[in-house]
Design goal:
Blueprint lengths: L13 H11 L7 H7 L3 E7 L7 E6 L3 H9 L3 E4 L4 H13 L5 E5 L13 E11 L4 E5 L7 E4 H9 L12 E4 L8 H17 L7 H11 L3 H4 L3 H16 L9 H14 L8 H23 L8 H24 L2
Antiparallel strand pairs: 1-2, 3-8, 4-5, 4-8, 5-6, 6-7
């Protein structure tokens, strides 16, 4: 059974696409950039994991997008977990029976239709239906135009497997509903902008936000010495290019997608136009894309070193993002 009236619209980012699909199932239709922006979807996480390949990796989105967007909209959102496969299946079955489209957290490489080798934890998909007689689930996933049919055992493995960067135990899923009383969009946008600035500016000991971006920029010239091997270094550089430009980011490490949100936000809240936020974020997205292509070129070299010019680009991005979010925080206290 597929949830009656379920509609999947392909997008570029798993979290915002999934949220749009889940809310649309409850009668609330948002654009993907608006869902991403209301969720304060930008972030920066930098990890060095010597036992993992690639050993140096980062991500450019925040982990709480769905919950943040629901809070800004006043939409109910409940995250649930289960200790075992039977409980996890029963939980999402009950959500479907209540007319909800649950958002599942999965490890992407365990989803058979992706044919991916690199693990990626925290990939969001929407469960659109179940056919337990056949032992399959129907998933809506990011840019895929239709629903993907997945064996229930494979789906449980994807839900149970832990991998960086956003692994979570307990086979978690999120149940979201439309807000009982619609909130003015301009109010939701301003709240989301404040939250985004706070989350980027918070001091997380260099593990997240601008502190992690500063640490990445400072560490980048040492990657050749710290990598486990030349192959690992090549993978680090190639993966960095992919997470900036390819892996469901919309280009520019999600900054281009966030720029589209800011353009749409100006229509709902014209007072934002004077801040030139969309223009500035689009410039940051372009700079991230330029850095990505430099890193991709380096990944093809036999013994790549990190040129001073590339390091300077990373440092300029860290400085530019800090100025952007400090200005947002000052303008919207």
């Amino acid at each position: 059974m597929i949830l009656p009236g379920f509609q999947h619209r392909p997008g570029v980012h798993c979290g915002s696409t999934a949220l749009c699909d889940a809310l649309r199932a409850r009668g609330l239709d948002l654009s993907e950039p608006m869902a991403f922006g209301l969720g304060a979807g930008l972030g920066f996480w930098y990890l060095v994991v010597p036992t993992f390949t690639p050993s140096h990796l980062f991500q450019g989105r925040g982990p709480g997008l769905e919950r943040n967007a629901c809070a800004a909209l006043g939409a109910p959102a409940v995250e649930r977990t289960a200790a075992d496969a039977a409980g996890a299946l029963a939980g999402v079955r009950q959500a479907l029976q209540r007319g909800l489209a649950p958002i599942l957290s999965t490890e992407l490489s365990r989803l058979p239709y992706w044919r991916a080798r690199t693990p990626f934890g925290g990939h969001r998909v929407v469960l659109a239906g179940l056919d337990e007689a056949r032992g399959v689930a129907f998933l809506a996933d990011t840019d895929r135009p239709g629903l993907e049919e997945v064996d229930l055992a494979a789906l449980d493995e994807a839900r149970a497997t832990l991998a960086p960067p956003f692994a979570a135990e307990g086979r978690p899923w999120l149940e979201v509903d439309a807000p009982p009383v619609p909130r003015p969009l301009a109010d939701a946008i301003e709240e989301a902008l404040r939250r985004q600035a706070r989350e980027m500016l918070v001091d997380a000991g260099g593990q997240a936000g601008l502190g992690a971006l500063d640490r990445f920029a400072a560490d980048l010239p040492r990657w050749p010495d710290e990598a486990e091997s030349a192959k690992d270094l090549s993978r680090c550089l190639r993966y960095a290019y992919q997470v900036i430009e390819v892996r469901g980011t919309g280009g520019g490490l999600f900054r281009r997608l966030y720029g589209r949100f800011l353009r749409e936000a100006e229509g709902a809240a014209p007072q934002l136009t004077r801040l030139r936020l969309a223009e500035r974020m689009e410039g940051l997205a372009t700079a991230w894309a330029r850095l990505a292509h430099e890193l991709r070129h380096l990944s093809d070299q036999a013994s790549p070193a990190i040129p001073l010019g590339v390091v300077a680009q990373a440092r300029a991005l860290a400085e530019g993002e800090r100025r952007f979010f400090e200005d947002v925080a000052a303008a919207l206290p």
